[in-house]
Amino acid sequence: MKEITVLSGKGGAGKTSITAALASLAQNAVFCDNDVDASDLHLILKPEIKETHQFDSGSLAFINQETCTKCRTCQDVCRFEAIFTNNDGSPEVNPLQCEGCRLCERLCPADAIQTHQNLNNNWYVSYTRFGAMVHAKMGVGEENSGKLVTRIREKAREIALENKADFVLNDGPPGIGCTAISSITGTNAVLLVIEPTVSGLHDAKRLVELVNSFQVPICAIINKYDINTEFTATVESYLKENKIVLVGKIPFSKMFVESILVEKSLIEFAPNHPISLNLKSIWKMIRQLLISKTCFQ
After folding, report:
1. Strand, coil or helix: what is 259?
2. Report field, pTM of the whole predicted structure over 0.85
3. Which residues pair with 58 in a beta bridge?
4. Looking at the DSSP assignment, which residues form a beta bridge with residue 219?
5. Where are the beta strands (DSSP E) in the chain?
6. What is the dihedral of CA 181, 159, 2, 137, to 10 degrees?
7. Is the pLDDT assigned to residue 27 strictly greater than 90?
8. DSSP string, 226-271
9. Is the pLDDT of residue 151 over 80?
10. Residue 123 and residue 138: Cα distance in Å, rounded?
């Protein structure tokens, strides 16, 4: 079983559309949406949820206003400035700033503060028309998204082993944050989706540096390559200089949007379109790289 994670240095590069297309080509695979903060692979794969699990993203302090003496000790000791005074002079916790350290709870002379586990997050085991899928939904401003990515990837691999699947295909998050780090750790390879723009290449370089630090092999797709063919050549030069295998180039096409509007991958929407045929060749090349003894070397 091989695991491949699709990543991009920035949002809008087309990562999820390409992942969905590959999902429709990958036979005997398990899919995992690692972009837990803003997941959208489900919009195309339309998963049918079979299991729902809560995820503890940390702790959050609550102040009992009936017990509180308004001494403001909690406000004075909070290092995160998460406690403020409301209009009636009572201290109140800003849930977006509270780190759940429990210092205020321990020092409150009136025992008016309690810390509760924050369970405003869920992860799911689902089934799609292409196979099993693990995905999640986090509340706005919730913490420990990297930990959640690790949990759903573990479950995806567990299902893959049980079903003797050939691949786990992860739709990773954009950028180089905690969720990206959790998506890279332990994967067999990264498929980097780059758009030929200055910002696209700049952010891709940062991501390549991160992936290299984990010594994970990388291959790349240049998406929307024809919007700037001159800069596409610059991207190709960068990939060649850094010994990153370019598995394909995909032109800009409104058909990606049209397929998403009807909740289909491009492969399903237009199976004989030149871009679909190109994607089929790309997936074939990725498979060969993954199963070869030399991998991406």
Report:
1. helix
2. no
3. none
4. 191, 245
5. 2-8, 29-33, 48-54, 59-63, 83-85, 91-93, 113-117, 121-128, 131-138, 167-174, 189-194, 218-223, 245-250
6. -30
7. no
8. GG-HHHHHHHHHHHHHTT-EEEEEE---THHHHHHHTT--HHHH-T
9. yes
10. 8
Q: Is the pLDDT of residue 153 over 60?
A: yes
Residue listed under structure tokens 């919007």 = 227
Contact of 113 with 64, CB cutoff 8 Å:
yes
CA distance 191 to 5: 6
Which of 3.30.1130.10, 3.30.70.20, 3.40.50.1240, 3.40.190.150 would CATH assign to domain 59-117? Answer: 3.30.70.20
DSSP-derived secondary structure letter, 124: E
Measured CA to CA, the distance from residue 30 to residue 293 in angstroms comes to 22
Q: Interhelix angle for 229-241 vs 198-213, to 10°?
A: 20
Q: In Å, how far are 103, 119, 124 from 58, measured between CA atoms?
A: 14, 8, 19
Position 196, amino acid: P
Q: Please check whether the domain covering 2-55+138-291 is classified as CATH 3.40.50.300.
A: yes
In the chain, where the domains are located: 2-55+138-291, 59-117
83 near 91, Cβ under 8 Å? Answer: yes
How large is the average pLDDT for residues 112-125? Answer: 87
